[in-house]
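**User:** My hope is that you can spare some time for a protein that puzzles me. I have put the entry right below:
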Amino acid sequence: MTRPRAMIRAGWGGGGRPRVDAAFVLAVVAILAFAFTNGFHDAANAIATLVATRGARPGPAIILAAVCNLVGPLLLGAAVADTIAGIVDVTPAQTVVVVGAALTAAVTWNLVTWWQGLPSSSSHALVGGLVGAAIVEAGAGAVNWGGLGGGHPTGVIGTLVALAVSPVLGFGAAWAMERAVRRGLRRATTRVNRPVLRGQWVTSGWLALSHGANDAQKAVGVLAVLLLANGTTPSLSAPVWATMTCAAALTLGTALGGWRIVKTIGRRIFRIRPVDGLVSQASSAAVILAASLVGAPASTTQVVSSSVVGVGVGRRRYRHVGWGVVRSILLAWVTTFPAAAVLAALLVPVWRWLP
């Protein structure tokens, strides 16, 4: 990944001694807290339908998600981390303030929406926080607005386009797969339930693997920028320990706080059967995996939620879809980016004050 101009001018990665102060430490804590709260939201979705359809008990499902979330970012590359790391272009002196304010705002928003049981997008919160903090600290020119150059998303616009398109693809893939499965199993007996439940383990693991490659890398990308600005690393290539730490924080969040979101995804949008869970997981995993490989940040919350709606529509059970819940989720998605941006902007003076 090409380093932004401000990084080159300031001599990032030039071999200077790393400077560790209170603000730097708190910024690292904020990044890990974001990964942890992200586990409340997006990581929980990897096992939501598996648990809701009683394909697995919570304990084994968490272990499955934990292993796959840790392996995903190591196996599938750092394309998403590179995209996130290029959203803002600030000097090393401004980096701690921007990152700290942005991540504090994202964590706050994640906690508020988690408490309400709303599957909001942690990705929107992260990008909104970075934009709001960067504009206040360094001006609008510090934001890389980007686009879709060469088929790969770059900057704010490219990231928002990827976040907007991925749930549409999740809905479409789930709808098409549900229709195909219903035709294929219309004469099936109850004997099909056992292989379907076993198949859910495979698709849940696939979804968790894809999620780890996408969402854990978002925190990794911000941490890589912070470590480079501090002189800890010579480039934006995050060390393995940084990737593993962010993935571990994400997984811990899943284990300790994700069940509010699991109930919303698995029961309040549409009461799904095991075969519906299999369809939702497979379609969501395929979309998120593809996004990870091209460096497109995707919200697992959005993709999984939209795939559950796609399953309900595919079964033509329109009245059984919780449209009120869907509207609440859509409202949270729309308001997340500006809310996080405003909150981050308000937090910038606080982070300037820190030593």
